[in-house]
Write a structure and sequence with these properties.
Largest sheet of chain A: none
Radius of gyration of chain C: 21 Å
Helix content of chain A: over 70%
Structural class of chain C: mainly alpha
Strand content of chain C: under 5%
Shape of chain C: elongated
Helix content of chain C: over 70%
Oligomer: heterotrimer
CATH topology of chain C: Four Helix Bundle (Hemerythrin (Met), subunit A)
Largest interface: A-C, 48 and 48 residues
Number of strands of chain A: 0
Structural class of chain A: mainly alpha
Strand content of chain A: under 5%
Distance between the termini of chain A: 62 Å
Number of domains of chain C: 1
CATH architecture of chain C: Up-down Bundle
Number of domains of chain A: 2
Chains: A mainly alpha (about 100), B mainly alpha (about 550), C mainly alpha (about 210)
Bound molecules: copper (II) ion
Number of strands of chain C: 0
Radius of gyration of chain A: 19 Å
Chain lengths: ~100, ~550, ~210
């Protein structure tokens, strides 16, 4: 029935996982190497961008997000949006602060 | 199972008499039936409510005269902390979702149970454990927390009272609330009856959906904040402690990132209840179904953006203050949309003033006052004057008690006969309503006045010129409590000895719970219903269209 | 009749629903750490130089090694599900045991890392800790709280996976009913994602 169907769709092959793993390790190497170079303010941005790419790989492949119903991806977007908005508003206070 | 006939008979008996795996009390406290869990919540909730009311009563009694009236200042601090913690975490937040949401959400969706019945039971146990911990903190040496329900640092790190116990209790209660929310979101996504599209869902379900998202996303923030207080007290890491370089204002930010959305966890389900009751007792299709549904989502969304309006007096940056004040005004819009739509539904309806409707109308009236006074404090300059005065106490109680409290009372009068198959005394319920209404306003309205005149909140002592307001307010608390005692005795007596109701549709509602037996059977539905029409179809009264000017 | 049968025999099972519940739970975990990430960003913003200097005291090599361990454990977790989907129970159990083993390795590493710091007198309440500049102290406060909470999640995940291994051995989890294993896997990957962010924020901002 419906659920069995969804189980079959829910499979990735061994090889794709291994490729993702290799990319994750490679990206870890890159982020360590890049950290040694001083880009100024861009250093932290580079680290965070690489971390985001890694998380994206884990989310979509390891966690099967690509195979799930659309609702799941909307959910993740809502949760991330909540974090980002709260973060932005928090800094609406802190980045304009002179005292304290 | 003995044989098919017996099983069939058991299937058709009311859930109150259903024989499951366990007998006696265990058939309740280990039941995974959403209806029984709803009633378990109701029982526990009413006990904690009684406790919370008692502390509220004692606060008011202490304030009857300036200086000492009944207790020492330290005990008074513990009173208002316990009143706040119990009322917020044990009564108002779980009140509607955990009791009536559990009982009626699956029924309204045409399902047999929630998505995760065992998780549902776990969340009740967490709730009770949290409640018991709070009571334990009162009895243990050191005494209950005296920080106020806000646990502000640095005082919550310095005080010698049992902050750790009260804090972990609140943590457990938050976890329980998260599990309820998670359960409801999955239930609504996965278990709607065939044919029930999103816009054929009852508005109560919509409101629970919006609430559940806030529960899932915002509650963890208070969880980590409470954990950090505990870590701070045990290890002294210095993350918030100004003596060690931490920023106590950052604690307030984290606290309110949850606690402002939490007031929407409290009020939105009540709005859902009102949206159910109004069309039934006005005998009209609800006006602006989609507006009401989306405004619940809108409140959840905007409500997450305004937390720092609780901190206008702590020294935030000017830009921050401006942004948060502006957003606070925005969040009034979806609430106002709801009030307009309810009023438009009432317009030209044939209104019957049964007890549920009386409480619903009181909700609209009192919530509007609460909402407007909220806007007054959302304005930056005015708020500097009003911060930490009893004005905010008045505002908060108009919204939370006048809003959610009345919503819970309305729900009790609306659904209890359905849940237990017995009717309370209608006349006595109306008398109780009027006493409550008068007592409520006598109790809380003077708080606006004295707050405006400068009476600080949470103070043990006050200047003699405030005496008259405090005395009116305290007398109001006596009237209110009298009304509530009449109301609850009437309800409880009704459940035990009241007229037996077997009629399915007691009030003439159009949602699914009124199509099944009273009280419901274990499986709710003999056959899962097929849905083809939207809820709230009162065609017989829809002879004429609304006049143009209402729409514009 | 069939309706009668449904009422009695019907065992409700909805794998999509179960996974949905798990994802929602993961969001709460994400936000739990989210609160700490807020703290980190604000304090880093206020004490940039101190954070920069303090981060140099952490061992990048150990951090990188632990990252590799955790990423590999994520791989074995994902592989164990595919193995089960292909009805290869033995291989699935093998991969699950690998995951647990890697988790242990991660924790052992973490233990020695913490111990080194504690030997140097850097821990909450020590004289050295109280005498530090505020920024450096906040860095280590965050370091202990965040990696500590993360380690706690690693332990919970380990226990969870052990239970799943037991279930797999006893055929509670089978090739056509493995949503429990998937849920444990989701949890494990989230623990991994959190580390993916913790690693650069603490070890690489020098
Ligand atoms: Cu607020």
């Amino acid at each position: 029935m419906d659920k069995h169907h969804s189980n079959i769709e829910h499979a990735h092959s061994y090889t794709i996982y291994i490729w993702v793993w290799i990319s994750l390790l490679a990206l870890t190497g890159v982020t360590v190497a890049v950290a040694g170079i001083n880009f100024g303010a861009f250093t932290i941005a580079a680290a965070l961008i690489i971390a985001s790419v890694k998380s994206y790989l884990v989310l979509t492949i390891f966690m099967h997000l690509r195979l799930e119903m659309k609702a799941f991806r909307v959910f993740v977007a809502v949760a991330l949006l909540f974090v980002i908005i709260s973060f932005t508003l928090l800094f609406a206070d802190y980045s304009f602060l002179s005292l304290r | 199972m003995d044989n098919d006939a017996a099983t069939a008979a058991n299937d058709h008996v009311s859930f109150l008499k259903y024989k499951g795996k366990y007998k006696g009390i265990r058939s309740w406290i280990l039941s995974t039936d959403h209806k029984r869990i709803g009633i378990l919540y109701l029982m526990a909730l009413l006990c904690f409510f009684a406790l919370g009311v008692t502390f509220g009563f004692l606060i008011r009694l202490e304030l009857l005269t300036p200086g000492k009236t009944i207790v020492e200042p330290q005990v008074y601090n513990e009173f208002f902390t316990l009143h706040g913690v119990i009322m917020i975490f044990l009564f108002v937040i779980p009140g509607l979702p955990a009791v009536f949401g559990n009982f009626f959400l699956p029924i309204m969706l045409g399902a047999k149970d929630v998505a995760f019945p065992r998780l549902n039971l776990l969340s009740w146990w967490l709730y009770v454990t949290g409640g018991v911990l709070i009571i334990a903190s009162i009895l243990m040496p050191g005494g209950p927390a005296d920080t106020g329900w806000t646990f502000y640092i640095p005082y919550s790190v310095r005080t010698t009272t049992n902050v750790i116990i009260t804090g972990s209790a609140a943590f457990l209660l938050g976890f329980s609330s998260i599990l309820t929310g998670l359960n409801f979101i999955t239930t609504i996504h996965r278990l709607r009856a065939p044919g029930m599209g999103w816009f054929k869902m009852p508005l109560f379900a919509w409101s629970l959906y919006a609430t559940a998202w806030i529960q899932v996303l915002a509650t963890p923030i208070i969880g980590i904040t409470l954990l950090l207080i505990i870590v701070e007290r045990v290890f002294g890491v210095g993350l918030f402690d100004p003596a060690l370089g931490g920023d106590p204002i950052l604690f307030q930010h984290l606290f309110w990132i949850y606690s402002h959305p939490a007031v929407y966890i409290m009020i939105v389900p009540a709005m859902g209840v009102i949206s159910e009751i109004i069309p039934v007792f006005a005998r009209r299709t609800i006006f602006g179904y989609k507006f009401i549904a989306f405004s619940s989502i809108g409140i959840a969304l905007f409500g997450s953006l305004v937390w720092a309006h609780h901190m206008f007096a702590v020294g935030m940056s000017d830009t921050g203050q401006f942004i948060f004040s502006f957003l606070t005004f925005m969040v009034a819009i979806p609430s106002a949309i709801k009030v307009f739509n309810w009023t438009a539904t009432l317009y030209k309806g044939s209104i019957s003033l049964d007890p549920p409707m009386l409480f619903a109308l009181a909700f609209i009236f009192l919530f509007s006052i609460g909402g407007f006074t909220g806007l007054i404090q959302g304005a930056l300059s005015v708020d500097i004057h009003l911060t930490d005065t009893s004005f905010i106490v008045g505002h908060f109680h108009y919204v939370m008690f006048g809003g959610t409290g009345m919503g819970i009372f309305a729900a009790l009068h609306y659904w209890l006969p359905k849940m237990f198959g017995r009717m309370y005394n209608l006349k006595r319920a109306k008398v109780a309503f009027w006493i409550i209404f008068v007592g409520f306003n006598t109790l809380y309205f003077p708080m606006f006045v004295m707050g405006w005149l400068g009476m600080p909140r949470r103070y043990y002592d006050y200047l003699p010129e405030y005496t008259i307001y405090h005395q009116i307010s305290t007398v109001g608390s006596w009237i209110l409590i009298t009304g509530m005692i009449i109301m609850f005795t009437n309800l409880i007596q009704g459940l035990r000895k009241g007229k037996v109701v077997t009629e399915r549709n007691i009030w003439g509602g159009e949602t699914l719970e009124w199509t099944i037996e009273t009280p419901p059977t274990h499986d709710n539905f003999d056959k899962i219903p097929m849905i083809s029409t939207p809820p709230y179809e009162y065609k017989q009264n829809e002879t004429e269209e609304l006049p143009e000017e209402i729409i514009h | 009749m069939s309706t009668q049968e449904q009422a009695v025999v019907h065992v409700h099972r909805d794998d999509i629903g179960s996974r949905m519940g798990m994802w929602l739970f993961l969001f709460t975990e994400l936000l739990l750490f989210g609160g700490l990430f807020f703290l980190y960003s604000v304090y880093r913003f206020m004490h940039q130089a101190d954070f920069h200097v303090a981060a140099k005291e952490l061992n990048v090599l150990v951090g990188t090694f632990n990252t590799a361990i955790l990423l590999t454990s994520s791989l074995t977790m994902a592989l164990s599900i595919t193995a089960l989907q292909r009805n290869n129970k033995k291989l699935s159990v093998f991969f699950q045991l690998c995951t647990i083993l890697l988790a242990v390795a991660f924790l052992v590493n973490k233990y020695f890392e913490w111990m080194t710091k504690i030997h140097h007198g850097i821990y909450p309440g020590s004289d050295e800790y109280l005498a530090m500049e505020s920024g450096r102290r906040l860095f280590f406060a965050l370091y202990y709280v965040m990696t500590g909470l993360h380690a706690l999640h690693v332990i919970i995940g380990m226990v969870l996976i052990s239970v799943m291994t037991r279930f797999t051995v006893r055929n509670v989890i089978t090739h056509d009913n493995y949503v429990k294993l998937e849920a444990a896997g989701l949890y494990w990957h989230l623990v991994d994602i959190i580390w993916i962010f913790l690693f650069p924020l603490f070890y690489l901002i020098t």
